[in-house]
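Why should sequence recovery work at all? Because a backbone constrains its sequence more than one might expect. Tight turns favour small or flexible residues, buried strands favour hydrophobic ones, and helices have their own preferences. The token representation captures these environments compactly. In the example below, the structure is given first.
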């Protein structure tokens, strides 16, 4: 996730139709910052993340990361790592193997790669867990393992889709602190989808509010938290 220059994300007049739903996004996520993406359920938050990651292909418009046009690139060709709510660990593989998939899909790992895996596990508080199976771990431990997989990928952009939603309040706080700590160390560009106003306040440098498939507001966090003229935003911030 380390990059010599922060990789900002530009989503320029991107249009997408999924069934009967239409989305149109125009926004910028600053390089080296944590951007919170929030809004009502079904508004298009995850759709925006999927467009940036490459899991959805826009009907029109352009997506750039670090100044390079990635609109037509396969997800594997984009400089991003992802952490999802369900952590996407393979139940039949131990943690070292799960994390190794982040380095090489065919698991052609060098001794240096295996050292990176152990270091990443140590970094997220799971030192010595290489042979543990996902089913033996708590929800918080599985999510830490997902962070370790993102760490070993060493991509400049980290995308997170409600990564803490299934955790209890104490674990949410612990994982949020870990995210901030890792961000300070790497200086990477982070986009996190969240329904939690507290997470927006705690984590974000910048925020987007999405409603009805469009970006209703994008602003630095201090400005975002003061705005009360955007329908739906006041209710969200006052929860």
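From this structural description, the recovered sequence reads:
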């Amino acid at each position: 996730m380390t990059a010599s220059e922060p990789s900002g994300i530009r989503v320029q007049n991107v249009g997408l139709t999924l069934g009967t739903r239409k989305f149109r996004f125009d926004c910028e996520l600053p390089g080296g910052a944590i951007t919170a993406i929030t809004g009502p359920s079904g508004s298009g938050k995850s759709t925006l993340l999927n467009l940036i990651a490459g899991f959805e292909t826009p009907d029109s418009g352009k997506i750039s990361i670090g100044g390079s046009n990635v609109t037509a690139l396969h997800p594997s060709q984009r400089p991003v790592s992802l952490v999802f709510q369900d952590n996407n660990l393979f139940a039949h593989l131990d943690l070292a193997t799960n994390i190794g998939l982040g380095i090489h899909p065919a698991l052609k790992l060098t001794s240096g790669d295996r050292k990176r895996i152990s270091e990443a596990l140590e970094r997220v508080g799971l030192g010595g867990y290489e042979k543990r199976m996902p089913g033996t771990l708590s929800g918080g431990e599985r999510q830490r393992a997902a962070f370790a997989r993102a760490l070993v990928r060493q991509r400049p952009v980290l995308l997170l889709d409600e990564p803490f939603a299934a955790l209890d309040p104490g674990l949410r706080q612990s994982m949020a602190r870990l995210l901030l700590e890792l961000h300070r160390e790497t200086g990477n560009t982070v986009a996190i989808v969240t329904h939690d106003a507290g997470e927006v306040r705690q984590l974000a440098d910048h925020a987007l509010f999405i409603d009805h498939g469009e970006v209703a507001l994008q602003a630095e966090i201090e400005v975002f938290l003061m705005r009360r003229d955007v329908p739906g935003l006041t209710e969200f911030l006052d929860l």
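A few observations help interpret the result. The helical segments are 45-53, 95-100, 111-123, 139-153, 169-186, 197-203, 221-226, 233-237.
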